């Protein structure tokens, strides 16, 4: 099994382009496979003056400014862009990057963004229906010269879509989320990769994906397994006791919890830890690799120099040892 590691940022936390480019270029030098960003419109009700770069605009800029690292969304919200337009945006970035796009996709969830931007926010079953129709349209536009499609939510008619993606038949599709009935079924039907979070029932989620694969006649081993490790404030590893204590204090100050609660959260749900000395963090990734995960999108604390320093330490103390 060949392991892949990507770096992940949440643009709504205030990244500007210089921060994002620096992280991507350093990740490229350090041997990370990919750079990922979430697809959000703002952080919260206090974010009127806080940067939140558009995910696809950011990827387009990074596609032109990098040479090796792959680029992806973790994950694109289906409802923010019509799938026909998104097919063209994604194919354009795949061309600009010379075939380095990962296509991360989801049904959407952040209701306050929908409300603020005037997007309807239907019930989850309808959002899932819309995402599945959208995936069918995306694949048609990426592979056929002028396809037509008529669904309940979306339609296209003799739609030209050029350029086509450089990657054939299309960029690899990664679906994020672990909803047992619909999301994991959509993974089995449409996706190249399943992207999960670390939860106590993680093995159960994989068993359910296996059943969905069986139901649609797909080999479970044909679906790549990736995991987002971890949400804000991110993974932190060091072999220096003073650095670890300084970082734990930073977490306490920013999270408003005790040192014990910080450590408990970092060590929960699986052996090892997201925060600590190399042997603790290695134990966690070794456990996940044992479950079949081969791809990790890793978020690190901070935005500027702190993020870059953390991604360097992780590459040296964890990546190189797995």
Provide key terms for this protein.
TIM Barrel; alpha/beta; eight-stranded parallel β-barrel; 16% strand; globular; 322 residues
Give a concise summary:
This protein is an alpha/beta fold and 322 residues long. The protein is built from eleven helices and 13 strands.
How many extended strands? 13
Give me the CATH fold name.
Answer: TIM Barrel
Biggest sheet record? 8 strands, parallel, barrel
Q: Which secondary-structure class do the elements indicate?
A: alpha/beta
Determine the CATH superfamily: Luciferase-like domain
Assign an overall shape. globular
Order of helices and strands: EHEHEEHEHHEEEHEHEEHHEHEH
Helix content class: 40-55%
Q: How big is the Rg?
A: 20 Å
Mean pLDDT across residues? 96
CATH architecture: Alpha-Beta Barrel
- CATH class placement: Alpha Beta
Distance between the amino and carboxyl termini: 11 Å
Low-confidence stretches: none
Strand content: 15-25%
Q: How many helices does DSSP assign?
A: 11
Q: What topology, given as strand order, has the largest sheet?
A: 1-2-3-5-8-9-10-13
Q: How many domain modules?
A: 1
What does this structure look like?
The N and C termini lie close together (11 Å). Strand 1, helix 1 and strand 2 form a beta-alpha-beta unit. This protein has helices at 17-30, 55-65, 83-96, 111-117, 124-143, 183-190, 202-216, 241-255, 259-267, 278-290, 305-317, and strands spanning 4-9, 34-37, 70-73, 76-77, 101-106, 149-150, 155-156, 173-176, 193-197, 224-229, 236-237, 275-276, 295-299. Helix 3 crosses helix 5 (124-143). It has 322 residues and is α/β, with parallel strands linked by helices. The protein is globular and about 65 Å long. The model has no long low-confidence stretch (mean pLDDT 96). The protein contains 11 helices and 13 strands. The longest helix is centred in the middle third of the chain and has 20 residues, at 124-143. The protein has one domain: TIM Barrel, CATH 3.20.20.30. The chain has an 8-stranded parallel beta barrel with strand order 1-2-3-5-8-9-10-13, surrounded by 4 helices. Strands 6-7 form a two-stranded antiparallel ribbon. 43% of the residues lie in helices and 16% in strands.
């Amino acid at each position: 099994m060949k392991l892949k590691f990507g770096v992940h940022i949440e643009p709504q936390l205030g990244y500007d382009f210089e921060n994002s480019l620096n992280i991507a270029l350093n990740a490229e030098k350090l041997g990370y496979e990919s750079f990922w960003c979430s697809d959000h419109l703002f952080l919260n009700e206090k974010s009127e003056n806080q940067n939140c770069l558009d995910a696809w605009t950011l990827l387009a800029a990074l596609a032109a400014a990098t040479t090796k690292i792959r680029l992806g969304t973790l994950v694109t919200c289906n409802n923010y862009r019509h799938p026909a337009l998104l097919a063209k945006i994604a194919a354009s970035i795949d061309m600009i990057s010379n075939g380095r796009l990962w296509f991360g996709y989801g049904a959407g969830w952040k209701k306050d963004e929908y409300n603020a931007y005037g997007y309807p926010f239907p019930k989850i079953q309808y959002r899932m229906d819309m995402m599945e129709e959208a995936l069918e349209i995306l694949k048609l536009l990426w592979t056929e010269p002028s396809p037509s499609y008529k669904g309940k939510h979306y339609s296209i008619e003799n739609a030209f879509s050029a350029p086509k993606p450089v990657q054939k038949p299309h960029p690899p599709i990664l679906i994020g989320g672990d909803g047992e009935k619909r999301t994991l079924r959509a993974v089995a039907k449409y996706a190249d990769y399943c992207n999960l979070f670390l939860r106590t029932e993680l093995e159960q989620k994989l068993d359910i994906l296996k059943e969905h694969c069986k139901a649609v006649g797909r080999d479970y081993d044909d679906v790549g397994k990736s995991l987002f490790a971890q949400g804000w404030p991110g993974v932190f590893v060091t072999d220096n006791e003073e650095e670890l204590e300084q970082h734990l204090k930073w977490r306490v100050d920013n999270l408003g919890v005790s040192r014990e609660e910080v450590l408990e959260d970092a060590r929960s749900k699986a052996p090892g830890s997201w925060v600590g000395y190399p042997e603790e963090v290695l134990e966690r990734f070794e456990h996940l690799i044992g479950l079949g995960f081969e791809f990790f999108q890793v978020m690190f604390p901070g935005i500027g120099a702190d993020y870059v320093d953390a991604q360097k330490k992780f590459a040296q103390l964890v990546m190189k040892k797995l």
